[in-house]
Specification:
alpha/beta, binds pyridoxal-5'-phosphate, about 35% helix, 2 domains, 7-stranded mixed beta sheet, 14 helices, Aspartate Aminotransferase, domain 2, 5-stranded mixed beta sheet
């Protein structure tokens, strides 16, 4: 019955998010490591919380429904989710990543998995059709994000999935920036979807969590085995908070998108701004492709201040918009990619990638859009040289 529900109803009613024992409408926090067994091998389906915990099971069954998946797993962070996923591979395997994957993901592959001889190559072409020739006989997977940080580049999930299928490799999409409300990569043929649930799914900047979903039976079994073997699982308390956050995902994402489009339009007409990156803007080069696979532009935008404005002054001049790492929460956050998320990339390479010193990334919250516009405008005026 629940399969026929609209996404907004699934957020509230899908998965095991109530309690059959007491009728509680919220899944309780099962703060326990172990479960009593009546006799040898006789138990109620729970033995040890690393393997299975009812509160974590709640959020796992919920994300499974929301991404239209068959299997779902919850982890202690987005990085734990990615590390567990990458543990599917073995020495000698090669993974292709797109050049603009999340910095932590690059570090994990470049500095950790490379020690286990899991090699990577970076695909830098804009033209995805060239990917097919880029895949070698060692390639086992491609890992990417769309839209990607911080320039919000968009690639076709359908096109990458079909190339991956043809070549017999896995495609893994980090769907953090969109959330399952805006984009469902499995529908377009992706094999595995990963989320940093710290961002939009949690939505309130009050927890760190990661999620992984897939459809394939064998993959699901292997990921479940790895989750239990590695043990980087989400705790019951955070599972509860995450379920609570997810209930309002649709409302929040609608507001994030509405506010972001409003600010993107404002900034693109502003005399102090030389460029705005937002796939929800009709004038954005990614607009058509993005809107084929996503419901709207989402809550992330980047823009470039002209050289006659001092970006450092701008960053200390906002009033309600906060300078901080992270994104996807109810409050608006500013980030300076050149010195924060992309600081480890040498300046010359960074400039070639389009990450100028004057590039500003904004995670637009759900505050009143006029207040946000006024705050941005005032900070820009103060930054004028
Ligand atoms: C934040 C983030 C991650 C890492 O997630 P954590 O929850 O911080 O471990 C991975 N991918 C993307 C796109 C992110 O924004």
């Amino acid at each position: 019955m629940k399969e026929n529900l609209a996404f907004e109803s699934l957020l509230i009613h899908a998965g095991k998010t109530t309690d059959s024992l007491t009728g509680a409408v919220n899944r309780p926090i099962y703060q326990t490591s172990t479960f009593k067994q009546k006799a040898l091998g006789e138990h109620l389906g729970y033995e040890y919380s690393r393997t299975k915990n009812p509160t974590r099971e709640g959020v796992e069954s919920l994300i499974t429904a929301l991404e239209g998946a068959k299997f779902g797993f919850a982890f202690a962070s987005g990085m734990a989710a990615l590390a567990t996923t990458l543990s599917l591979f073995k020495s000698g395997d090669e993974i292709i990543i797109l050049s603009n994957v999340y910095g932590g993901t690059f570090r994990l592959i470049d500095k950790v998995f490379s020690n286990f001889n899991i090699i990577y190559r970076i695909f830098e072409e804009k033209d995805i059709s060239k990917l097919e020739d880029f895949i070698s006989n060692k390639t086992k997977a491609i890992l990417y994000e769309t839209p990607a940080n911080p320039l919000l580049n968009v690639v076709s999930i359908e096109q990458i999935s079909s190339i991956a299928k043809k070549k017999g490799i896995l495609s893994i999409v980090d769907n953090t920036f969109m959330s399952p409300y805006l984009q469902n990569p499995l529908k377009f043929g992706a094999d595995i979807v990963v989320h940093s649930a710290t961002k939009y799914l949690g939505g309130h900047s009050d927890l760190v969590a990661g999620l992984v979903v897939c459809n394939d039976e064998l993959l699901g079994e292997r990921l479940g085995f790895l989750q239990n073997s590695i043990g980087a699982v989400l705790a019951p308390n955070d599972s509860f908070l995450l379920i609570r956050g997810i209930k309002t995902l649709a409302l929040r994402m609608q507001r994030h998108s509405e506010n972001t489009l409003f600010l993107a339009e404002f900034l693109s007409k502003h005399e102090a701004v030389s460029k705005v990156y937002y796939p929800g803007l009709k004038s954005d080069e990614n607009y058509t492709l993005h809107n084929k696979q996503a419901k709207s532009g989402g809550g992330m935008l980047s823009f470039v201040l002209k050289k006659n404005y001092d970006y450092k002054t701008f960053f200390k001049s906002t009033n309600i918009i906060t300078l901080a790492e992270s994104l996807g929460g109810v409050e608006s956050l500013l980030c300076h990619p050149a010195s924060m998320t992309h600081a480890s990339i040498p300046r010359e390479i960074r400039l070639k990638m389009g990450i100028e010193d004057e590039l500003i990334r904004l995670s637009v919250g759900i505050e009143d859009k006029e207040d946000l516009k006024a705050d941005l405008n005032e900070a820009i005026q103060r930054a004028k040289l």
